Amino acid sequence: MVADDVAKKLIQERARVAELFASAVNSGMRTLKMDGMEKVLMGLTDFKMVRSVCIKQGGQIGSTADGNILPKEHDGDMLLNK
User: Residue 74 and residue 24: Cα distance in Å, rounded?
Assistant: First the structure.
C-alpha cells in the first residue's frame, strides 16, 4: 500500500486501525477478499477458492504477481491497489 497524505497524517496521529483502514478503502484500496469477490463475479475464480485464500488457516499469502489467487491458505484482508 502506498500511503497518501491522509493515511500519513492518520499514522502520525496514531489513529485507530479501523480509521486507517476506512481511509485506505475510501482512497481506492481494496482487500484481498474484495479483489477475490470481483474475480468471482467476472467468472475468473469461484467463492470456494476465495474463501480458502481469505480465511485464516495458517500458511502464506496465495497470489501471483499478476494478481491470480492461488490455493494457499493465509490471513485474509491484505490491501491491494485498485
Answer: 21
Is 36 within 8 Å of 81 (Cβ atoms)?
no
The burial of 33, by beta-carbon neighbours within 10 Å (0-12 exposed, 13-18 middle, 19 or more buried), is given as: middle
Prediction pTM value: 0.57
Structural domain total, the chain: 1
Chain segment 52-73, per-residue pLDDT in tens: 988 765 544 444 444 555 443 3
Q: Which domain holds residue 21?
A: 5-80
* CA separation for the pair 32, 29 (Å, rounded): 10
Burial class (CB in 10 A: 0-12, 13-18, 19+), 18: exposed
Q: Report the distance separating Cα 46 and Cα 43, nearest Å.
A: 7
Task: Let me know: does 4 contact 81? Beta carbons within 8 Å.
Answer: no
